[in-house]
Amino acid sequence: MALNITGRKLFVKALKEEGVDTIFAYPGGMITDIVDELYKTEGIRVVLGRHEQALVHEAEGYARATGKTAVVLVTSGPGATNTITGIADAYYDSIPMVIFTGQVPLHLIGNDAFQEVDIVGMTRSITKFGVTVRNREDMGKLIKMGFQVASTGKPGPVLIDIPKDIQVTSGSPEYPDHVDIRGYHPNENVHIGQLKKAYRLLKNAKRPLILAGGGVRIAGAQKNLLEFATKMNIPVTTTIMGKGVMPEDSPLYIGNCGMHGRFAANKAVTECDVLFSIGTRFNDRITGELDEFAPKAQIVHVDIASASISRNVVVDVPVTADAKIALERLCEYAEAMDTKKWLCELKAWEKEHPLTMPKSKVGVCPQTICEGINEVFPKANIVTDVGQHQMWATQFIKLNEGQEFITSGGLGTMGFGFPAAIGASIGNPKKDVVLVTGDGGFQMNMQEMATAMTIGVSVVICLFNNSTLGMVRQMQQLFYGKRYEITDLSAEDGSYYPDFLKWAEGYQCKAIRVTDADGVVPALKEAKKNKGITLIDFIVSPDDLVLPMVKSGTPLGDMILK
Amino acid sequence: MKNRWIALYVENQVGVLAKVSGLFSAKSYNLQTLTVGTTEQEDVSRMTISVKADDVTFEQIKKQLNAMVEVIKVIDLTTIPIHMKEILYATVHGLDSVGKTEAFQIAEVFDRGGSVKICDIGGDTVLFECTLTENKNNELIALLKSRFKKVQIVRGGAVAVEAISRSNR
Ligand SMILES: Cc1ncc(C[n+]2csc(CCOP(=O)(O)OP(=O)(O)O)c2C)c(N)n1
């Protein structure tokens, strides 16, 4: 029998056996023992953020750039509650992550002890699994369970709460290779009968369409999707989370659909007769008014989580399966279809309303910035925050193979972008990271500049500075009679805080201001040369709109185009 | 919207009941009753849940429950023969001797082999103890309320088990 070890030692042992080489941590009284153990450990990099919410987004960016399960470590009470927004974000975008929270000693739990909160209870609806370790002997098993659950099936965050006394109690050194969880059986197979049914439906369609979501990326099924679509000549549209799963230069790719989707893509959804959707959960931003969604189509839905199927959209052929496995099987019998006529119709729609913006009256046109990014950074990972700039990025940034598009899709969390970009760079330091962010969202986690500068990551911050909360202001402009209440971020006399150049100076980071189109590419080129952080403050007009737009609750076919 | 029944095997752990009931509130499913107790296996609990839902929602509920790591098995009791009973206590106050006699008569008529009895009695009060189906209990309550002025009701949720003989329902 091996000698007993403390909980804190077992914690580190577990991370090592899981192959964890980086964790995102913020200290506090209830994890000082584990922190001390990490000090003595080699081979695990500990990244200190400046705010726990940002820390979780950093971990998300890391997970999305590497495909690995990210690990977060924070203290109890306020440390734990600060992670909640990040956890919710990870939950809705299916990011594999294990969050360890310190907890007050067992005998104090339930006593309103200093910095005690019921974090497992608070995060119950935004975690795949959450547990407080109440017995030192269960610790190994529960941590293993956490990693298993977070990374399999539909991935998601798992929270493991470890009371301080458990961290120092001695017990078994065992860390299991595998835990049998009797209530957890992620789907590993596909019902061939259902798949054949789906195939027959497609084969007989006149206007077939594939709708691909983030599930395709999570499954690593990009190549399979391309093969399947190409073999059958079926056009492909994507969700925001699915952006990039289909090469943008493929003649079959028709762009994103949804609230700010392309005209042709939304028309395609409205007019198709069979919709083959895979790895998407039909979020309302994709469907518009549900009753009018794909009104002429029979719908196939392939998803790894059977609970996602027929929840929003009632489907004709449900297929519970991993996207990669399903596409591999389909490719075995896929045969070419004659879709020429349908593809011509799509082309005509694209011609009727191509995706382009009118030139801005003042400042730099967002489309020009995105095109500059395409030109200067054709291989970078692209990270966005949430708002108009995010939608412009999804519309105008073209992704090539190997580029990730890292964005907060499900929760739409302002403040996500900058820390996620830092995390992406930590996970994949060889790759350029371009952040597209707004001045509102950036200010929600801009303290992370200290994290970035301290550890020396390399990120190009493209700040779309329109001095407003643009996305909300756009709604006010279109639907609320231009009553711009609480969306203007500048002072009454027009002055704006902070001056981002001066602010950046405080962090000793490079900063450039760009006020016209000519400045875009040179600034991006300079940023590319500069290792480290470059902030480019692009001055953008507050009146620029993201179009097309489908008003919330109206059919996808009803687009506002001007 | 029909009343539906589910039996659920879950891990017998802190927080599991909250997670299951939390699903119903978080997704706005209309939970009618929920009872829970341990099974022959100490680490497994069984819940009996009734919800009012349409077909589509009910399918979703079952899937969502199935997706929970702590849920071991979901059994849809709506479509299979089951035995189901609900515990009910009814205290009737302010009875004269005529009233008391009537109370005993009611108990006798509702009784099906020990399922209703008057288990306690005081000066002007009697206590009914019933293990009937939920519907039968509803009828009893309605009758007691129509006959007597002051009736106090305590009900537990229903507990159900799959029938052995398939003709039972
Ligand atoms: C944490 C959070 N609060 C509020 C919102 C609502 N919201 C969505 S977009 C937006 C405006 C974003 O402004 P900015 O970051 O400047 O980007 P822009 O739209 O101007 O490009 C707001 C307030 C949100 N998504 N997240």
| Strands ordered across the widest β-sheet of chain A | 3-2-4-5-7-6
Outline type of chain A: globular
What is the CA-atom radius of gyration of chain B, in angstroms? 19 Å
The main sheet of chain B comes to: 4 strands, antiparallel
Strand segment count of chain A: 20
Ends distance of chain B: 20 Å
Query: Could you give a short account of the major beta sheet of chain A?
Result: 6 strands, parallel
Overall, the morphology of chain B is elongated
CATH topology assignment of the largest domain in chain B: Alpha-Beta Plaits
* Most extensive contact: A-B, 22 and 23 residues
Low-confidence region ranges of chain B: none
What is the typical, i.e. mean, pLDDT of chain B? 93
How many structurally independent domains of chain B?
A: 2
Strand percentage of chain A, roughly? Answer: 15-25%
Characterization of this structure:
The complex is a heterodimer of chains A (562) and B (169). Chain A is an alpha/beta fold. Chain A contains 23 helices and 20 strands. In chain A, the strands form 4 sheets. Chain A has a 6-stranded parallel sheet with strand order 3-2-4-5-7-6, with helices on both faces. Chain A has a 6-stranded parallel sheet with strand order 11-10-9-12-13-14, with helices on both faces. Chain B has 169 residues and is α+β, with helices and mostly antiparallel strands. Chain B starts with a strand and ends in a 7-residue tail after the last strand. The complex binds thiamine diphosphate (TPP). Chain B: Belongs to the acetolactate synthase small subunit family. Chain B: Catalyzes the conversion of 2 pyruvate molecules into acetolactate in the first common step of the biosynthetic pathway of the branched-amino acids such as leucine, isoleucine, and valine. Chain B: Residues 5-82 form the ACT domain.
